[in-house]
Amino acid sequence: MSARERFHGIILVADDNEANRELLASLLGQEGYQVISVADGRQALAQVSSDSIDVALLDVVMPGKSGFEVCQAIKSKAETCLIPVVLLTSLTSDDDRIHGIMCGADDFLSKPVNKHELLARVHSLLRMKQFTDELDNAETVLFSLALSIEAKDPYTEGHCDRLSKYSVAVADKLGLPEDLRVALRRGGLLHDIGKLAVPEHILLKPGALTPEERKIMENHTTAGERICKPLRSFRHVLPIIRHHHEKQDGSGYPDGLKGDQIPLAARILQITDIYDALTTDRPYRKALSAEKAFEIMREEANRGWWDSSILNVFEAVVHGFEPVPPVGSAR
Questions:
Q1: Which residues of the chain have pLDDT under 70?
Q2: Which of 56, 82, 235, 307 stands 20 to 30 A from 22 (CA)?
């Protein structure tokens, strides 16, 4: 591997055999990698939690926690699940390999370790880690930009975070798959990112918008879709961003979709968006109570604007969030 191709990174080596640790540290150190060596599974998990590990090399048979258990723990947490894990083992049965795959292992190396195979596997996994880190950084930038829009208006503080939590709670109630829950969490934060393309004098105008200004404002849905489209991992988020202002009767924008033509995730987010707008202070009125907000939203659902079945689920979610009044208190 040439110096130009080298991806420097931090490699965690976990093995209860000191000679094995020293060998791996020497081979990897010669290639310019920073190596952190530990002697058991618990120390490995502590290092993963406290350091920015790029690749973890785990011996399968260790005291305390096995390599299988450490791998499973790493892969089960959102903050560490993208760390590539290689299991080092002298076990050769198919059952052991299948167990490792079920625990989330990205690769296997048989003992005794072949130097060239070791370096090739580590190099390949570091390239993958670099890609996922760049993707994660891109997502972080988008979330920061979305929050910067919110920060411009004191009346919308916390709006994106509330939409994200409410929408995921509705998805949980409906038993939706994990990919849609993740999309709703992201969509809650990013649904209005297209407002980056809206001039501030329109975005922050306290009074009614002119027809021309309204058209510019409505373009934020398609602008937001364009901003997020390059990220392939956002494919389930794009319909939320584009369609969260559609209405059941086809009178919404940008595409005038009707009924079930509107993606389910977009219908969920629009319900939470309307509720949050009604129950927070605005320049032109004070926040409404939950009861009044739902009364208005039910009237609008009867008018053919919102999905009443989702509204019913969301109302149950909201009432579930509210504290139970003390015994004997007036309602």
A1: 1-7, 92, 134-137, 153-156, 283-284, 321-331
A2: 82
| Residues shown for the chain | 331
Output the six-digit token pair for 96. Answer: 């052991």
Q: How many Å separate Cα 281 from the centre of its chain?
A: 29
| Residue type present at position 155 | Y
Please tell me the distance from the alpha carbon of residue 157 to that of residue 70, in angstroms, as a whole number.
Answer: 40
Helix (H, G, I), strand (E, B) or coil at 109: strand
Sign of CA dihedral 57, 130, 133, 176: negative
CA dist 256 and 214 (Å) reads 16
String of DSSP letters for 64-81: SS-HHHHHHHHHTSTTTT
Q: What is the pTM of this model?
A: 0.63
Separation of alpha carbons 51 and 10, rounded Å: 9
Query: What is the three-class DSSP state of 56?
Result: strand
Q: In this predicted structure, what is the pLDDT of residue 135?
A: 66
pLDDT of residue 47: 93
Distance CA 240, CA 182 (A): 12
DSSP result, 259-295: GGGS-HHHHHHHHHHHHHHHTS-BTTBPPPPHHHHHH
Q: Which domains does the chain show, CATH number per domain?
A: 3-132 (3.40.50.2300), 152-321 (1.10.3210.10)
Contacts within 8 Å (CB) and 24+ apart, 282-287 = 282/155, 283/155, 283/206, 284/206
Nearest to 100 by CA among 115, 116, 89, 114: 89
Alpha helices in the chain (DSSP H): 18-30, 41-50, 67-75, 94-102, 115-151, 159-174, 178-190, 200-203, 211-218, 220-228, 238-243, 264-278, 290-302, 308-321
Question: Do 100 and 68 contact (CB within 8 A), yes or no?
Answer: yes
- φ, ψ of residue 244 to 5 degrees: the values are -75, 0
